[in-house]
Predict the structure.
Amino acid sequence: MHASPGDACDLPADFAEAVCKEVAEDAQFRVSREVDDRAGAALFGLVGEGLDEVPAKQQQARVRSCACVPGSAWLTCLPRYHCLVMSDPVFRSAARFRLGLSVLPDSSVAARCLCGKDLTPAHMMGCKKLNEFVRRRHDFIVHAWRRILQRAGIASSIEPALHLLCRPGTRLRHDDARGDVLAILLAVTALDISVAHPAVAGTCATSLYHLTHAAAEDGWAAGQRDIAKRRKYAENNFRDQFIPLSHETYGRLGKPCMKLLSDLGDIVAAAGRSSKSAFINAAVAELSVAMQRGNEEVFRMYRFNFAKVSGHHFLPGEAVPSALMD
């Protein structure tokens, strides 16, 4: 918030004053939507100006992915519950990532990843060397969805055995393959949760194709991931309902995510426990914070790798900081 309306920003004073008033009235999501729409419309044409084609498109994809309520909810939600709390390091990293700034020190510009490629945020989001920490981000989001399902009165379990959900006679590529979440909606429903990075790194034809569309179309990365997941589950001949829940790294939700939240909101409203809008707003805020907390796990591995490739006799830090001595 500003010290006074319109202070230290380019917003008109009357608009900034309205923003402050709305926040004071606890209407964070309407404010976030209006700010994103106005700022996005004004700034999108300037993003990437003076950069080469690929960096420019990466910046445009970033802004387009951020310019939505789920991509901004972590900025405006109040930390009333543990699931909405963001530590200072998490908030700082999330802000830098949203603004397109490096999450590493300036001295790391020329650093290279353990895989041999340039150590950049775009590369970091898809590098196979970071699977463990990408998985942690995935788990943050899985648990957020389960809490949302629980509040809607829906039973769920994690890692269902996929062979139990296939039609008889179906052979899976891996017999021990498991899904993400099994939810009991109107039918047994398998939920596959994934995260896609819209500002994809790489200069191959496929990467450039996806980057060009992500820079021009809202939700392209999440939408393409949803299509791929549906194709995968169709090939496996599942007999039960399947819903792909794809997120973008900046927080944007895919259309199936928003459709499921809407359906859950109807269930909650019909039970008289809460209004549909209040339920959806709370769920979006929780998912938005979960994404940023998960991203911090990837950023931590990013910094971990930088230290590892920059010197000798690498010593990792404690996973949980402590004052105890061995």
Remarks:
- Residues 1-8, 18-29, 41-46 have pLDDT under 50 and may be disordered.
- The chain has eleven helices and four strands.
- The longest strand covers residues 188-196.
